[in-house]
């Protein structure tokens, strides 16, 4: 809640539509607008233009009030879109920051705030670039994310992470897959996975023109082809992009060379 002096956190005491509120605790000052709230590993995180803040456990229990600044190194990289759309999935908190995307793992021994946006793909010279504008996790299987490229005025649906059997172990392998779909002329602002219609779960996406899009997801397996309700898009043309495969000649443009896939 914005008040004189800054942005304050208040706790509902009764709930309902006519609730009563407890005392306000200052999170940020007025020059640092707070825009997002998310619960991650039983702790409340507040997103602002300067980054992530989190009240201590003692503060949430009303014993004392103290706020930890999780990302002080980003104070000099202020951005109005910082932390907007941050999302929790599996063991991470995914946070858009400084025009990129980061994942936060408080239990990591080193580099617990790791950059993972498309800008980290050094060989990516395609149009699939931009800032993350929305995310949605699907079970423990994968994370969907949309990136908006202002130069192309298009959004790209990506998928991050997959599971693979290595010997007798099922191992999660991080990494981007896609683009699965291109939304021309719009920015995707919200995403959610739900099973409300019944049957197969669906990934819903809302764009800045007020349109709702959805994709049918596999119900029982990460293998899409195992579910007859998941069909291939045969209307729009696809493109295979392999930026890291240069056949030993990275300086030669490959746009006019053929590639056989068998």
Question: What structural class do the secondary elements suggest?
Answer: mainly beta
Task: Label the overall shape.
Answer: globular
Summarize model confidence as the mean pLDDT: 84
Biggest beta sheet attributes: 4 strands, antiparallel
Largest sheet, order of strands side by side? 4-5-6-7
**What Rg do the Cα atoms give?**
21 Å
- Low-confidence runs (pLDDT<50, min 5 residues)? none
**Range of strand content:** 35-45%
SSE sequence, one letter per element:
EEEEEEHEEEEEEEEEEEE
- Count of extended strands: 18
> Whole-Å distance between the termini?
58 Å
What is the helix fraction of residues, given as a range?
under 10%
How many helices? The count is 1
What does the model show?
This protein is mainly β. The protein is built from 1 helix and 18 strands. A 4-stranded antiparallel beta sheet has the order 4-5-6-7. Strands 8-9-10-11 form a 4-stranded antiparallel beta sheet, with no helix packed on it. The protein has a 4-stranded antiparallel beta sheet with strand order 12-13-14-15, with no helix packed on it. A hairpin with a 2-residue loop joins strand 14 and strand 15 (about 170-185).
Give a nutshell description of this structure.
This protein is an all-beta fold. The protein is built from one helix and 18 strands. The strands form five sheets. The chain has a four-stranded antiparallel beta sheet. A four-stranded antiparallel beta sheet has the order 8-9-10-11, with no helix packed on it. It has a four-stranded antiparallel beta sheet with strand order 12-13-14-15, with no helix packed on it.
């Amino acid at each position: 809640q914005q008040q004189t002096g800054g942005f304050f956190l208040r706790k509902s005491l009764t709930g309902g539509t006519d609730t009563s509120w407890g005392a306000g605790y200052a999170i940020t000052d007025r020059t640092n607008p707070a825009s997002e709230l998310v619960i991650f590993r039983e702790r409340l995180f507040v997103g602002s233009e300067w980054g992530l803040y989190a009240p201590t456990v003692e503060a949430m229990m009303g014993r004392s009030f103290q706020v930890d600044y999780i990302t002080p190194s980003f104070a000099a990289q202020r951005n109005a879109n910082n932390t907007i759309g941050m999302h929790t999935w599996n063991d991470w908190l995914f946070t858009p920051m400084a025009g990129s995307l980061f994942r936060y793992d408080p239990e990591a021994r080193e580099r617990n705030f790791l950059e993972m946006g498309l800008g980290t793909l050094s060989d990516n010279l395609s149009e699939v670039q931009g800032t993350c504008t929305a995310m949605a996790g699907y079970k423990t299987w994968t994370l969907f994310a949309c990136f908006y490229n202002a130069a192309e005025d298009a959004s790209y649906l990506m998928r991050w992470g997959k599971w693979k059997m290595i010997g007798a172990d099922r191992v999660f392998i991080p990494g981007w897959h896609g683009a699965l779909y291109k939304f021309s002329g719009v920015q995707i602002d919200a995403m959610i996975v739900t099973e409300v219609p019944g049957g197969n779960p669906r990934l819903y996406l809302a764009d800045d023109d007020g349109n709702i899009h959805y994709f049918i997801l596999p119900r029982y397996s990460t293998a899409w082809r195992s579910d007859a309700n998941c069909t291939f898009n045969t209307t729009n043309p696809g493109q295979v992009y392999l930026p890291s495969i240069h056949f030993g000649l990275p300086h030669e443009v490959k746009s006019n060379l053929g590639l056989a896939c068998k």
